[in-house]
Queue: 4 jobs
Job 1
Amino acid sequence: MITDLYIFGDTVVHRLGPGKKLLALLVLCSLLFIFESWLALLPAALLVLAGFWLAGLSAHHAFAALRPVLWILAAIFLIQLFYSGVVGAGFVVMRFAVLILAASLVTLTTRTSEFVDGIMAGLRYAPRFVPREKIALAIAMTMRFIPRLRAQFDEIREAQRARGLERNPIALLVPLIVRTLKDADEIAQAIEARSVD
Amino acid sequence: MSIRDIVFIALFAAIIAALALFPPIIIPLINVPITAQSLGIMLAGGVLGATRGGLSVILFLVLVAIGLPLLSGGRGGFAVFFGPTGGYLIGWIVAAVVIGFLTERFWHRLNYVSSFLICVFGGIVVLYAIGIPWSAAVADIPVATAAAGSAPFIPGDIVKALIAAVVIVTVKRSYPLIEAERADRPSAA
C-alpha cells in the first residue's frame, strides 16, 4: 500500500472529524484573504501554532511543511519589499506560512482513509444522477493500482537499462501506457463479467 | 460512462502518480529541474480525450489533497493548493481537458507536429494563463512579475510537449482510445 502523510496520535485534533477540520481550513483561508490585516493574521497564526502544540507535533513537522516553498517565499518577500516595504512583505509571506501550516495540520492529523470514508458517506446523500458507485470504484481502484504501477515503472526502467534506454522518456512512457491500457481493458472485462454495472 | 471508462480514468490517475518516480532532468545553463508529472497531464488529455483525461486529473488531485504524497518530491496534502503555485495544480485539470478536446478534434490529422502544438497550447499557454494570475493574486504581486518568475520553466515545458507529442502519436498507433468511440458515429472527418 501507499503510505499517507498522517502522523500517528490520539489527541483532540486527531479525533476531530475530517469534515470539520476541512471546513475550519476553508474558513480560515477565506478570512485571511477577505480581512487583509495583522489583526486577522496574528490570531490565526496563534491558532495554528496552538493546533500544532495540541496535536503533539514538533517544529520539525512545521519546517518540513514549509521547506518546499521556502525559495518561492523568499523570492516573493524580496519582490514585495520593493513594492510595499518590510511590513507588507512580511504580511504576504506570513499569510502563506500560516495557510500552509494550517493545511498541513489537517493533513498530518487525518488519515487518508478517514477522508475516503467521509467522501463515501457524503456520496450517500448525493442526488441520484451522481454515479456514486463509479466514483467509489475509481477512488478505490486508483489507490490500489498506484503501488502496482510504480513497480511496473521500475520494471520497465530495468528492461530499458539493458538496452541503454533507461533515460529515454519515450522508451519508458510508451510501454508503461500501452501496458496499462491493455490491463485496464482486461480489468473492465473482469468487472463486467461479474455484472457490477 | 462505462465501467471501461472508469478503469481508464483510475489507471491513468495511477500513471500520473507513478511519474513522480521519473528522475528529474536538469536543464543546463538555467538549472531548472523538469519533472515528468506535468507530462502526465498532457498525456492524460492526449491519450484519454477531454472528459476521461480531465476526470483522471481531478481524481489524482483529490488523492493528493486527502493526504497521499503523490506529487514529485513526495509532496501532498492540502498544503500544496495553498502555496503560491496552487493555481498550476488547478490549471492541470483545464490543461488536460483542452488538450483532450483538441486531440479529439484533430484525431484524424494527428501527427507529431499537430500533437506538439496542441500540447504547447493546452499544457503551456492555457496552464500559464491560469497559474500566473493566480500566483499574482495570492502573492499580491504584479502579473508581469509573476510571469517573469514562471519564464524559466517554459523551455522545460516545451521539451515535455515534444515528448508528450511523440508518446501520444505512438500510443494512438498501437492503442487508439478516442477512435474507438468515434467509429460508431457517422463519419464526420
Note: Strands of chain B lie at 25-26, 33-34.
Job 2
Amino acid sequence: MNAKSNQNDRLWMYATMVKSRHFEACIKPAYFEGKTPVFNMAKGPLPGEMHLSDGQEPCAVGVCAHLRADDTVTATHRPHHVAIAKGVDLDAMTAEIFGKATGLSGGRGGHMHLFDAKVNFACSGIIAQGLGPAVGAALAAKMRGEDSVAIAYLGDGAANQGAFHEALNLAAVWNAPVVFVIEDNAYGISVAKKDCTAVARNADRAAAYAMPGHFVAGNDPDAVHAVAGEAIARARRGEGPSLIEIETCRLEGHFMGDAEGYRPPGEVDRLKALDPIPRYRERLLAEGFDAADLDAAEAESQRQVDAAFTAARAAALPDPSEVYDHVFA
Amino acid sequence: MSSPEAPTRKLTIARAMSEAIGQEMAADSAVMVMGEDIAKLGGVFGTTTGLLEKFGPERVRDTPISETGFIGAAVGLAGAGFRPVVELMFVDFFGVCMDAIYNLAAKQSYFSGGQVTCPMVLMTSVGGGYGDAGQHSQCLYATFGHLPGMKVVMPSNAHDAKGLMLAAIRDPNPVIFMFHKALQGMGWLGTVKRSITHVPDGDYTVPLDRAQIAREGRDLTIVSLGLGVHHALDAAETLAKSGIEAEVIDLVSIAPLDRATVRQSVGRTGRLLVVDDDYLSYGVGAEVIASVCEDGAISLKATPRRIAHPDVPIPFSPAMEHHVLPSAGKVLEAAQAMLEPAL
C-alpha cells in the first residue's frame, strides 16, 4: 500500500470509528425507552439483549480497510462496528435492529443476526459459530481460483470453544484464505480472560495449527491496519490462514443493563481515558491532517447515522403473517 | 421413471446414493462431497464409492474428525454458491455438531430474510439391530423433524434413494438425508433384500415432501419409514393370508410430514398403526396419530397404536436389543389386536 492510499485509509478509519461510536450513542437512549424506571428487557422499541461495541472500533476498521465487497466477514454477537466497517447497508441494519419491515431480514433476526449478502456480511449469537462458515467461504474462493478472502471475528472467550480449534485446524489443512481476528476485550461476559484462558496470549495458539499468529497491542487502528494488511495480502496470495489477536477494550457492559459489578473499581474510567477515537484524532492532527477535514468526516458520519435512525423509527413494523416466510428458500 | 435398460439393474441403497451423487457432480460443478472417510474409503457405508477417482480430491474431501468444523464450513460453501453433500457418519454424532446444523444451517434463510440460502445435503446413517450399542444405533427422526428449517428424508429402497438424493442436492435448503443401516446393502451388515430394487440409470427425482403408498389395503393403515416399512410389508403379507388387507404408507419424508396422504388413507381404513425405531415419546408415531386425531372428519374403528423403541438407551446385548426394537412380529401382533372384532 502506498503512502497516499494509506492516508486515505486513515481518514476512512477515523470517520468509520466515529460513525460506529455515534451509532452506539444513538442506540443507548432508544434502548432505555420504556425500560426506565424498572428495567424490563422486553420493553421499548429495542427489546432483547443489546451488545455495544464502544472501544472496539479499531478492530473493525483496521481489518475492514483492506476488504472488498466480495470478501466475506462473519462477526459476533457484538457486531455493529464490524458491520458498519464492512459496508453493511446502514439504513437496513438500523431498521433490522428496530425490528422493522425494512430491516435487512424484515425483522426476523435483530441485532445479533445481521445479514447483508451484497457485502457478504453475517453475524450470529453463538460464540465461535461464524468460524466454520468463514473457512467454507474461503475454501469456495480458493476452489474458484478467486483472490477473495474471509475474515472470522471472535472474542477472547471464543478461543476456548471447540469450534475455534476445529476451524483453525481445518483452515490450515485446506490452506484456506481466511484470517481469524480475536477482539480481546479481556472479558467473556463477567469472567476475566485471565481466569479462564490457559495462555496469556491467544495469538500463541496459532502455533498449534502451523499458521502465523500476531498480537497487536494498544487498541491502535494503525497497528491493526498494518498487521491485518499483511495477513490479508498473504491470504490473497494463496499462502493460507493467519490468526490475529487485538488488544482492545469494552467501554460498556457485556449487554446494556449489565451492572458490571465484576469490574475492578476505576477500570472503566481508566479505559475511557484511553479511548481509541480521541487518541486517533490527536495522532492524525499531530501528523498533519487538517482539523477541518476530520470535522467534515465526523459530521458526515453522524449525519448518515442520524438519518438511518430517523428512517428506522418511521418505518412500519412487519406484518405478523409474514413470520412464515423464508423458513425455507 | 421409465427407463430403456432392462428392469433387472438392481442396486443397493449405498450404490444408488453414490450413483446419484456422482451423476449430479458430473452435471453441476458446484456439487462437492465432504466428510470423514468419504474419499479414499468411499464412505463407511458406501455412499461415496468411486467419487474420488472420478472427481479428485478438490471436490471429494476427506475431513478431519471435526464435525462442527466441516459442517460449519459446508454452510459457508453453500452460502457462496457451492452445493456441498456432507456425511455425518452416524446420526448419533449430532451431539458434537448440532449447533452447526440447527442453529446455523437451518436458520440461514430465515435470519437473512431469504438473502442467503443453504443448499446442502447432510447424509447420515441411522438404526441399530447389529449390536453396536446406544452411541451408534439411534434414529433421532423426531429430534431432527422437530426443528424448523431443515427437510428430513429417508428412503426405504434403492429406487427412492437415488431419486431423493438427486432432489436433495438440487433443493435450495438444508436436507438431512437419513439412510438406515439395515437397508444399506453393505456386505458386512445384513440387508433386507426388498430394499435392493431396480434403479434407472438416468436422471429422475423422488419428491422430498410426499409419502408413498407402499401397499394398498382397505382394513388397516400401517404408517412407517425406512426399515419399519419392511416390517410393515412383512406383517401385511402374513395378514393377507387370513384375508386382511393392510395399507402400508412409507412416509419417506419426516419433515415436512405428508399429513394429507396419511389422513386420506386412515379415512378409508379407519385404523392406524404407526411403526418406527426412534424413541417412543414425542416421536413420529405421536405426530402421525395427532395429525389424524386432529382431523375431525375421520372416524376411527379402533384406537390408534404406535410401536417404537421404548424410552431407554439402545442396549448392546442382542437378547436385550431385539427385545426393544420393532419387528414384523410386533407389527403383526398389534395389527391383529386392532382388527380383533373383524377377525
Note: Residues 3-186+202-315 of chain A form a domain with the Rossmann fold fold (CATH 3.40.50.970).
Job 3
Amino acid sequence: MITLDELLEKDRKREEDGFKRKIRIGRIVKPVRGGREKIVVVPTTVEEKFVHDEISLEEEGEGESTGGTGDGQEGDVIGEEPIRPSEDGEGQGEGDGEGPGQGSGGDHEFESNAYELGKVLSEDFELPNLVDKGGKRTLVKFNYEMTDKNRGFGQILDKKATLRRIVETNMSLGNIPDPYAIDPSDFIIAPSDMIYRILSKEKSYESQALIFFLRDYSGSMGGKPTQTVVSQHVMLYSWLLYQYHKQVLTRFILHDTEAREVEDFYKYYSYKVAGGTKVVSAYRMVNEIVEKESLARDYNIYVFHGTDGDDWDTDGKEALVELEKMISYAARVGITVARHSYAKSKDTEVESYLKKSGLLEKHANLIRMDVLDEDAEDTRIIQGIKNLIS
Amino acid sequence: MQLIDQHVKGIMEGCKQRARDAGLSFEDESLEYIVTNRDMIELSPKVMIPTLYDYWVHDVRVISGQGMYELYPSNPYETVINTRPPISYYNDNNPDWLNVMIFYHVLGHIDFFQNNLFFKHTWDFDFNGQALADKRLIAKYRSEKGRWVDYVIEFSRAIDNLVGYHDHVAGTLRSEGKRALGKLDYYFDIFLQNEKKVIQSEYLKEIDRYNKIDHNRLEVVGKDATSQENHENGAYAANAHDKNITHDTNHGAAVDLNHIYESNGSLSGTKNGNISKEDLFLIDVRIKYPEFDSFYSRYIEKKEKSRLDVVQYILKNSEFLKKDENRWMKSVIEIIRNTSLVFQPQIRTKIMNEGWASIWHEMLFMQDDRIKGHETDFAKVNAGVTSMPKVGLNPYALGMRLFYHIMEMENRDCYSFEYFNLKDKVKRDKFDKSKKDNPGKKGLEKIFQIRENLNDFTFINSFIDQEFMDKHNLFVSGKRLNRERMSWQYYVKSRKAEDYRDMIINTLYHPPVIYVDHKKTTQGPLYLVHKFEGKPLKRDYIENTMVGIEYLWGRSVRLETSEPVAASAETPHQRFINFWNQPKPPSPSAAQPDNKKEITWKRVLYVMENRKLIKRDI
C-alpha cells in the first residue's frame, strides 16, 4: 500500500511537469461527547470534470430541499436545529479545561495526527523552522520525586505494598493454610519482597507556546472564506505543534460583532452565524484573557486571525488600539484575509486600515498580514503560512 | 477475501431456485466472496472491481477511507458487481440468515443488471476480465513511460462523463446499429421538407405516388411479405426503425415510440416489399432530383460525424495522439472511456435497482421456509434499510415503495383511461377492477416490464403520482433560517406530486451535454459547445479539465457555455430553471409572493491556451 509521504512526493513532481498539485490535506472531524473531538488527517483530491453547478435557487436564508415523510400541513414546521450548537457542557468543561495537561484520549488522537501533519508540512512543504523571540525557555524540567516503586532496594520502605507482596508470596508457597488465622511470625520473607519508594527523575513538561485562533464567523464568511481560513489554521496549529514538540496550548475565539471563546477546535471550525462583523471584539477578548490570566509572562503567544476583511469599524480605530496592545506581548500576530472573489482588486476594510496604520512596516517581525483569495489552493495557503510566520 | 463456504453456497443455490420460480431471471453462475471491512475500503475506490487499473486517486481514497473508518466504523452488508459471472461480497461478520436475506437482495440486483435494457452493452463480456487485461496494459505502459501514464489517465477521466452513453447503448439495441434514416425516410422527412421545401400538395402527391406503387407491386411481392411477418413480431427494436410508410401519414417520432411499446401491435408492414418498392419509387425521384443521392450521402456523413462524443472525437482527430511516440495514449484513453461506459447505467438506475432488489429480498425472504425463527432479526435489519427518513431521501425505500405502489395501481387497473377520467377522490379510492382469478398477476407483469425498459428518470417521472404521495405521507421538506430563534427550521414545503418529482429528478445524475463543433474545430483549436440546460458549469473545475483536454488535443481548446450575469453581487435571489420541464408560465397555485428574479444568462467562451485560461464574452 502506498503511503501518504509517497503520494505527496508524487504530487510534488506534478509541478516539475507543469501541472498544479492535486492532493490536499484534509481532515475528518468527529465530535465526541464531552467536547473532545477526534480528528484524523487524510489526503483528499477532487477529480475535476465538467459538471453542473447548483446555483443558489432559493431566497436568502433558505436551505436545500429534500424529501420527507410524516404528518403535517404544507408550511408546518416539523423540526428545528439551533444555528449555534448548544452550549451545554461548556460549564462543566471549565473545570478540567483550565490550564495545561489535558492529555486525555480525544485530544491525544488529534494531536498525534496533527503532529504528523506538522511534520509533513515542515519537511515536505519546506516551511521554515521557528525563530523564537528572546531567550528560549527549557521545554522539559526534571523533578525528583519519590513516586516510583522498586523491589529490593530504595529510599523508603513502602510498608503496605511490602506486606501485600509478602502475603502473596506466602499464599503461593502454601504457607497460609487458613486465611482466617494468620500468624505473621510464620511468614517467609525474601529480600525481593521488600518494596521501596525510590527517588527518580520525572519529566515535567512546561507549555511553551500559546496560540489564539481567532475567526470571523459572521454571515459573510459562509462557505469558502471559512474553509480557507480553517484550513490554514489547522496547518498552522499542526506546524506549531511539531515545532514546539507538542508543547502547545490553544485557545479558540470566534467573533461576529461580539467575541466568544469556544473550548475546542471542532466548535471553532463548525460554528456559523449570520451576523455583522466587528474585528475589535475578538482582539479585545484576547487582550483581556492574556491580562487576566497573566499569560504573557509564561508563554510565547501567537495570535492568528482569519477574516474576509469586512469590519463595521471601517477605519479600524478601535481595532488598531487593541492590536497595538497585542503586539506588545505577542510573539507573532498573523492576520489572514480570505478575500471574496467578487471583491477583486479593492482592498477590504481590514486590509486598508492595517496598511494605513503603518503597523505592518513598523513591527514587521511582530505582525503580518496575508491576503489570499477565498478559493486559494493548498499550496497558496501554505505559502500564506510562510508569510505569516517567517 | 475468500470464497464463501460450501454450506452457505448450498443455501444460496436454494435461493436461486426460489427466485427463479418467482420470475426473476439470471445466469446460473455467480461468485460470492467473504470480505472484511478493510477489503471493502480498499475495493470501493475501484468501484468494487478487484481488477481495475491502478491509479493514485484510488490510493488517496483508500487512505482517506481508512481514516474515515477509524472515526466512523461501518459494516456494509453487501455489494454486487455487474460482471460475468456476477460477483458479490459479503461482510465477514454477517450471520448465515442475514446472508440469505442479502443474497435475495443480490439476486434482485443481478436480475436487474441482466435484464434492464440500459445495461445491454454490458451483457456480452466479462468486465472483470476486461479490466484485468486493461490493468496489465496500463502497468506495462507505466513501466515504460512513468508518471505520464497517470497524466493521461487523469485527463481522460476528466472527460469520461462526456461519453456518448446513450448512443452507445442505443447502438446495441438497434439491429442495424445505425442511426441515420433510410433513403426513403430521408426523402420524405428531410429532403422534401427541409431541403426542397416543397408545398404541401406536392408532398401529398408524392406520398400518393408512393402508395400507388405499393398497390401495383403488392401482388408480386405479397408472398414474400407474409413470410416476413413472423420475423417482425418480437424483434420490436427492429420494428421501431422500419417505419412503415403505407401505414402512417405523419412521420413524427411519436409513431416510433408507439411501435416500441406496442410490440405486439399488428403491423401490416411488408418489409420485403418495401425494398423493391423503395427502389422503384426512387428511380423516379432520381430523375426528378438528380442531386438526391449526393444530398443523401452528405446527410449520412454529417450524421456519423456529429454523433462522436468528445472522447471519440479527440481519439479520431487529435494530431498530437497521431504521433508515433504518443500512440500508446490512445489505448489508455480507450480504456478509460470503456470503463466509464460500463458504469453509466449503474448511476442512472440507482433508485430502481435498489428498489427492485429490496422488493425482492422482502418478498422472497418472507416466503422462504428455511429461515423460520429469524423473522424478528429480519424485520429489524429490513426496517433499517428500507424505512423512509423523516427528512431526507433513501433510494432503497423510495424505489421499493414505488414498485409496490405500481403493482397495486396496476392490479386495480388504475393506469387505465377510465381511472384517469375519474375526478372524484372517493370513487378513485374505491376504484378496483382487479381480476378475480389471479389478482396479483397484472401488477407483477407491469413491474417486470418496468425493470426491463425504464431508468431512474423515466421511472420517477412516470410513476410518482399524488396517490403515491398521499399513501406514504410524503412531502418536500424545506429548511429556512429563523432569525428570532437563531435556528434552522425544517418545514413541509409541498405535498404536490410534481414538486416531489422535480425535487428527486434534480438529484439524479445528469452530466452536461457537451459536444464538438466540427466546423469551428477544423480551424485548429478544439471547439466545445455546452448545450445549456438551465444550469451553469461548475466554474472551479473548468480550468483543470481544460488543461487536460488541451494536453490530449495537442493545441488550444475553447469551450462555449452559459453563465449568469452578475450573479454574485446584484441578484442574490436567483431563480432556478428546471431543465427537464420547460419554464412554465407562473401558475396561480404558487401562493408565496414571487420575489425571485429571473436570471439572465449570457454565452461566454473559455479559451485554454498553453495551460492558461481566459474568459471572453461572445
Note: Chain A is about 35% helix and 25% strand.
Job 4
Amino acid sequence: MKKRGFGYGCIFYGTGYGNGFPDISRSIAELDTKGHINIYVGATEVGQGAKTILGQIAAEALDVPVEIVTLIHEDTSITPDAGTAAASRQTYNTGNAVKISAEELKKEIIVVAKGLLNEDHLEISNGVIRSNTSDKTLTLKDIAEASGGGFLRKDGIFQANTTEMDPETGQGNPYWPYTINAYAVEVEVDTTTGIVDIIRAACSQDVGRAINPSLVEGQIDGGFAMGLGYAIFEDINLDKGRIKHNRFTNYLIPTALDMPEIEKIIVEDPESTGPFGAKGIGEPVMIAAAPAILNAIYDAVGVRLTEIPVTPEKLLKALKKREG
Amino acid sequence: MKTINVKINGENYTREINEDMRLLDFIRDELKLYGTKEGCGEGECGACTVIMDGVTVNSCMVMAFQANNKEILTIEGMEDEKGLHPIQQAFLDEGAVQCGFCIPGMVLSAKALLDKNPKPSRKEIKEGISGNLCRCTGYNKIVDSIEKASQYLEGEDQ
C-alpha cells in the first residue's frame, strides 16, 4: 500500500569557525593602471559562488560596474589569507573583508580626486567620480594615471565575533551570526517495498540578504539533495573501521529522478554585521531535509525512525515490529 | 598495438594504441581533450559521458579499439565558430553549474536527449540525465536549463 505524509524540519545554525577560534579574512582592493578594480582574496571557489558574490560586494561598495571588477583568488603567492571555504563563512567573513577593503580604496580614490579637481564634495557613482557642487567629473583611469601610474591598494581585515563558551555555565557567544530555515516535505511510503519517494518540498531559507538570489536557489537545491541522500540513501556501512559501501553501486546518492521539485522561499532579514546584510547558507541548507523527511515518514506510516539512512530494509523492519 | 581511425569532433585521427586502453584515456591522454572527466571509472557516475555514433556511452567502459571507425562527440565539439552551443548557453543562463565536474557529461546527455526528443517533459529530462550524478546542484537548475535549451533550439530551427 502507498501512504502519504507531511513533515517539517526547522534548524538554526551558527556559521563561522566558532567557539572563540580566530576567524579572520583578509582582502586587498586595488585600482590598476587601466582604471579597473582588482580584488585579491585567498577565498576558494568550489562552485558555491564565492567568486561571483565577492565581486558583486566590491562593485556595490565602490559603486562601480561589476564588469570592471576582477577577483583574483586562490593564488597564495599574491592573495592574502581569507580562511577556508568551510563553516559557511565566505559570504559573511570574506564578504565583510572585501567590503572593508573596497570602502578604504574608495576613500583613497576620493582623496586623489579632491586634489585633482580642487573640490570637497565628491562621490563615485556607477564608476565615475562626480562633484556634488559642479558638473566636473573624473574617470577611474584619470585617478590611476594621477597616482603616478602606480596601483592604489588598500587592505581590509575582518574578524568574526566569537568567544569560547564557559564550560561551567555553557554561556558565551560561540557563533555570530546564526542562520535559520524551515523545510516542508510530502513523502509517499510504499509499505510493501519500504521505498520512500519524496513527492515535493518547500524550503524557506533565511539568508540575511540575498547577494545573488539565483546562487541561493542553487545552494538550496544542492543542500536538499544532500540532505535527502543523508536521510534515506547514503550508508557508508562501516565494518571494523572499513567503509564497505565504497562505490556508487552500493553507496547510493540521489539522481535527478529522486529529486522533487522544490518551492524555494528566500527570507531576507538583513544581518546588521553582514556585508549588505548577508549571511552564509552553505551548510544550513542541508540540515533541515533529513528531520523533515523522517517526520513525514512518521506522518505517513506512524513509525518513528531514529537512525539514518532510512533504507527500505530498516523501514520494513520497523513496520513489521509495530505490527508485532 | 593496434591502429584505429576515429572521428572526434569532426576531425579524423589515426593512432596506434595499446589494446587495453580505455576510450576515456585515448580522449584525455592521447588527444589531450581534458573536458571529458573521470569520476568513478566504473560506469556509475556519468562524468566521462561522450556521444558515440549518436548514443551516449561512459567512455571509461568502452575500449579505445571499440571506437574504431566510429564518430565521437566530446564537450570540446559542442562549441562552433558562432560560439557556445545553445545547451551550454542555457546552462549558463540558468545558473546550472556549481563545481562543474559533472557538467560536460550532463551537457552531452542533454544533447543526446534533445536530438531524439526535441521537446521533452521534465520527467523525460530527469530520465535522460539519470545516469549522470551531481553532488552540488540538486539537478533542478540543470533540468530548468535543458527545458530552456529545448526552447533555444526550437527558436534556431525557425
Note: Chain B is about 35% helix and 15% strand.
